[in-house]
Design brief:
Oligomer: single chain
Radius of gyration: 32 Å
Shape: elongated
Mean pLDDT: 85
Strand content: 35-45%
Low-confidence stretches: none
Number of strands: 29
Largest sheet: 5 strands, mixed
């Protein structure tokens, strides 16, 4: 660092030269007197080898430097911006209206300031008419009203009674469901009463994931399940009228496959291939960094099986398949005429990453075969990642984040160990929603069909219900 006295003397010289250059004669005389500078300092010193840069040039250079630093600061406000890449801007332009972006006018207003249960809530969800449904560790379903007041308790109909791992509404025929940890699946009517002879053993162990898909063309309800027995299965639910007051419920398993490791996330999507009516099952599993897509090859055979339709690599190299796990997955809202997009929450620590992949557009088997390996026979797509963003969402090796979509306009929310976080995929940004209760770990959460209510269950046994409005 320059000597302080030298800096002070040079500053006085520059000020004196500035006053002379701009004709401030009277001020210059007083300045020379008070600064003890010799008059000759104002002469041209080129012959002495001394050339002083004028004050305006130095300040101008400093202003330009500050503008550069401000520009650089603006470029790094998002942890995903990289001045060597044009990805953030091109994504913002290219995927505007396709990827969810956060609406900063959204407000989360808590209803009734929360509710404390006597037991731990395992799953919190909504019915089709936005009634909160809770499954608890004391083997009950608790039905709440819009103010979180208890309306009804529903006992597990299985014998012996088992804890209900999953519950909710089926978007078909006003039915509700529940899944026990023993692998059982049972139906409830619109009033949450157990339906006689509608208990089905779908897995030999706990049902960890379940999804429903109703094909409007043939009015068939498909159910995809994954269990702790490492089986992934696709079923159909059928209803037959026995009498004017009685229905018969039948579940047929139309395809199953045993995967090599535990299923971590599961989603059902529509199959757009020509003449295909059965949906596709998307899964991720432990220690395998691919998004797997399964389909039923032939539904008419005696024992149909699920076949690996294709897989999407979620890392940058073909030879590193075990670098991270996918802890949750969400199919993003889809605009007409566009491919499907899937957001995936990774296991990276200390901060989660979110990967967005574009599902391949497949119109025939030729699109599958063009990416098929000649050795394994598996079709793998390697260039489907459009976003691989870092987030500010902290997590540990044991975290279980939950991804939920608000709507096409309003982005994503993530529940985790620290509370609730907002994610703007389009701008690749994330931040904590400080208006949400965060004194405990998020155990379960859901957003209702109308996208105007959010329910969160925490490990401290508290339940919080929010209105989502602008």
């Amino acid at each position: 660092m320059a000597d302080t006295s030298t800096v002070t003397d040079l500053t006085k010289v520059l000020v004196a030269q500035f006053l002379k250059k701009n004709g401030y004669t009277t001020t210059l005389k007083h300045f020379l007197t008070e600064s003890f500078l010799p008059r000759t300092i104002l002469d041209n010193n080129e012959s002495d080898g001394l050339i002083y840069e004028d004050l305006e040039s130095i300040i101008s250079d400093r202003v330009q430097y500050n503008e550069y630093m401000i520009h650089e600061k603006l470029q790094t406000l998002s942890i995903n911006n990289d001045k060597n890449k044009d990805e953030p801007e091109s994504i913002t332009i290219k995927y505007a209206g396709i990827l969810p972006s956060w609406d900063h006018n959204l407000k989360f207003s808590e209803i009734n300031k929360g509710s404390i249960l006597e037991t731990l809530t395992i799953n919190a969800t909504f019915s089709e008419n936005s009634q909160p449904i809770l499954s608890t560790s004391n083997k009950q379903l608790v039905i709440k009203d819009a103010n979180l007041q208890t309306v009804k308790f529903v006992e597990s109909p299985t014998k012996p009674k088992s804890i209900i791992k999953l519950c909710g509404s089926i978007p078909w025929k006003n039915l509700n469901y529940a899944c026990g940890i023993d692998g059982s699946f049972y139906l409830l009517d619109s009033n949450f009463n157990s339906i006689e002879k509608a208990i089905f053993k779908l897995h030999s162990r706990l049902i960890s994931h379940i999804q429903f898909f109703v094909n409007a063309e043939n009015n068939i309800c498909y159910i995809a399940t994954a269990g702790a027995d490492n089986f992934v299965k696709l079923h159909t639910l059928s209803i037959f009228a026995v009498s004017s007051s009685e229905n018969k419920y039948i579940i047929n398993t139309i395809g199953e496959i045993k995967i090599l490791s535990m299923c971590l996330s599961l989603r059902l999507i529509q199959n757009n291939e020509e003449n295909k009516t059965t949906p596709l099952i998307l899964i991720t599993r432990t220690d395998y960094t691919h998004l797997l897509c399964y389909s039923v090859d032939d539904i008419n055979v005696t024992k149909p099986s699920l076949e690996l339709y294709y897989q999407i690599a979620l890392n940058n190299t073909q030879f590193s398949t075990h670098s991270f796990n996918i802890r949750d997955m969400l199919v993003l809202p889809r605009k007409n005429g566009t491919n499907g997009y899937v957001a995936l929450a990774t296991s990276h620590i200390p901060f989660m990453r979110i990967i967005v992949v574009k599902l391949p557009k497949i119109s025939s088997q030729e699109d599958i075969k063009s990416n098929q390996s000649s050795i394994t026979g598996i079709s793998t797509f390697y260039k489907q990642i459009i976003i691989n963003m870092a987030t500010t969402i902290p997590q540990t090796s044991y975290s279980q984040p939950i991804l939920k979509s608000l709507s096409l306009q309003n982005g994503l929310v993530v529940g985790n160990d620290e509370g609730l976080y907002a994610v703007d995929l389009l701008k690749q940004d994330s931040w904590k929603l400080n208006t949400i209760y965060d004194n405990s770990i998020v155990k379960s959460m859901d957003i209702n069909r109308d996208q105007d209510k959010l329910i969160i269950a925490y490990t401290d046994k508290s339940i919080h219900l929010y209105d989502i409005n602008k």
